[in-house]
Amino acid sequence: MATTIHVLVGTMSGSAEIVAEDLCAAITADSDHQAEMLLMDDLDESVFERDGVFLICTSTYGQGEVPDNAVDFFKAVEAAKPDLSHIRYGVFGLGDMAYADTFNFGGKRFDDLLSSLGAKRIGVRAQHDASGPDAPEEAALLWLKDWLPQVDAALRDAA
Ligand SMILES: Cc1cc2nc3c(=O)[nH]c(=O)nc-3n(C[C@H](O)[C@H](O)[C@H](O)COP(=O)(O)O)c2cc1C
Question: What pTM was estimated for this model as a whole?
Fold first, then answer.
């Protein structure tokens, strides 16, 4: 069953946006699904009224915070507390093990928030390490190969 995968991007210096562009291109090329990239800057909780599956693609800044362009969105969802029990989502997080105590907390914060509102994650939360050997786009495309079949299985289960 084909759906739209909404890729919501939290980024400070652009890596997560490049990753999201590559993810959208691969989703469109390698599956029946549509993909749409949305920077988090202007989003609020109403984005979850869209049909489809959500993919949070975010880095981490400060001391384990979400990036600046994600702060207002995060706070809006936290304050509105929408019922997200119908929502399925994945998380591709970007971080750096140089910040070991808060490694990939941006993705973790979104994961914790969405699951606390009833949304159900598909697959494992990816945690890219900028200090590691792999470029984030390469890691993301590998992760996607594993994630997309799990999206299909989740959609079949829900049908
Ligand atoms: C000032 C600063 C603070 C950071 N803080 C964290 C952090 O707390 N935890 C983490 O895992 N990564 C942290 N990072 C690493 C970034 O999340 C990582 O470099 C990421 O790939 C950047 O992606 P972006 O270009 O999409 O923002 C930090 C980077 C900078 C420059």
Answer: 0.98
